[in-house]
Amino acid sequence: MPSRVVRSVSVSVALAGVLALVGCTTTAPEPEADATVTTVRPADGTTAVTDADAATRAIETSRSLFESTPLVVVSADDDDASFLAAQVAVELGVPLLLDGRGEAVAESASPAPSSTGAPDEPAGGSTAEPEASALDDEIERLGAATVIAVGDVDAESFGDLDVVASDADAEALREATGMDVSDSPDDLTPAAIAALPAPERSTSTPSASAAPIHPMPEPAAPLEGTIALSTDAAGDAAALATARAAGVPATVLPAGAADPLGSTAAIGALHDAGAASTLLLGEAFGTLPDPDWAVRTAATGFELPGGGQHLFADRLYVALYGAPEVPVLGVLGEQDVPATIERARTTAAEYAGLTDRTVVPTLEIIATVAAGDAGDDGNFSNELATSRLEPYIDAAADAGVYVVIDLQPGRTDFLTQAKLYESLLAKPNVGLALDPEWRLAPDEKHLTQIGSVSAQEINTVSDWLADLVNRESLPPKMFVLHQFRLDMIENRQDVDMSHPELELLIHADGQGGQPDKQATWRALHADAPAGMAWGWKNFYDEDLPMLTPEQTMRDVTPEVDLVTYQ
Prior knowledge:
Elements: E1 3-6, H1 11-22, E2 38-39, E3 45-49, H2 54-65, E4 66-68, E5 71-76, H3 79-92, E6 96-99, H4 101-109, H5 128-142, E7 146-150, E8 162-166, H6 170-177, H7 190-195, E9 226-231, H8 237-245, E10 250-253, H9 264-273, E11 277-281, H10 291-298, E12 315-322, H11 337-349, E13 358-370, E14 381-383, H12 386-399, E15 402-407, H13 414-420, H14 422-425, E16 430-434, E17 453-454, H15 455-471, E18 477-483, E19 489-490, E20 502-508, H16 514-525, E21 533-538, H17 549-555, E22 562-565
Parallel strand pairs: 3-11, 5-6, 5-7, 7-8, 9-10, 9-11, 12-13, 12-22, 13-15, 15-16, 16-18, 17-19, 18-20, 20-21, 21-22
Antiparallel strand pairs: 1-8, 2-4, 13-14
Helix pairs in contact: 2-5, 2-8, 3-8, 4-5, 11-12
Keywords: Signal
Region (Disordered): 105-131
Signal peptide: 1-28
């Protein structure tokens, strides 16, 4: 049975409709007053539709975008049916809902025993009755009078509604609806659904030979100010189709990488759309720690060299270290700004053929310099004016060079000094480094001992910096902790790694013979916080000998994420 009509219209009415169509012109009929589809733009910001159940996601998407419709499409909760049904829903401009009731009945018939031997209570109300109620409630909320049922859907379950039922077969669905439905594998994908044209008004009329659809919906005008991101998981087809039916543009991401910050396609789509409302459609987006920040940040359009906004995994940073115009503190200060940028790019280029990762030239600029004298503020640290750093940062931004500003605070604390450079840290290409070697106790002076900092103080800085990043819709920042002795960071296991706005890196600063440096490297890795990235420093004068780029990539294991030259 390819198609059938259940409680649609009487035979005489259907025949009258056919006869009327024979004598009419090709002009589309005027829609009935109650046939208009009404959509609504979601609230400003990000709406994440991430429930584990695809049928629930479809309902939530419908609630987010549709106020009323005379007709809905209901598909069996399986891939074949939903991809075919999606084409009909988008052309008609109506929601696509999923009927998961058959699965729920089967699951509820044989409940899994709990550890006590008694049947488990169903999680999240996923029994047959609640699922049926959720679907029925949504159809009632929408005011739909007609259902197009595709696949293994119980047409009798819709009560007094008119039902046009079709097997999950393209030919059957064409016969049932009079619409052009494709069963080409290329058309049965989330990407193909996203590419379907938005519904057009007064054109979606089934042929005279089709099963009756009454009243015929009049699609709403495409929603403006809204964009959707979905995944390529088949279970997201219904939610995605509902978004397209509302005229919402959609971009599809891999389900295994459902992160706007990591996707050039998502960044470009969000930036170009400039939308006030964003829908994230897919269970995979549920892993995002802060979806709203991720969307706001991606929408800025900023990308690191190599694409995306995440710092590590597929990038290697190669940095020059030092202070502006102070050659004794490192190679960064040995030349003017243009020459520094060129030297950074040349140094980084030596690594390009040694790794599959994108190599990013970097500057690590000492912003507060450890001092032998207390100075007017008594903190044994000279704070450089932001105006001395800005030319480097601006030139770096133009050249695709990342920047890290380094703090050597003396007797003050890291947070106090970090706040002095808030205007610089508010730039997307600027990270922050803390150098505990130069963190003094109230009665200490530099070079008489190695300084240290507590995890608690580090966390006060990371809390503040993460808040800045989130508030300003900035991409994740590199947050560097310099260390070459275990006691330089007290209670290192308590360093907060939970901020999605920061990507932390321990920078091994040891100098001297390579056996000693390798021993330090191994010691620092022991019991380090999970998820930490790693940096290695090559000293031109102090290392015996300094590693070549080839040796750095070959001999330093695990492989480094940042190589700094001083």
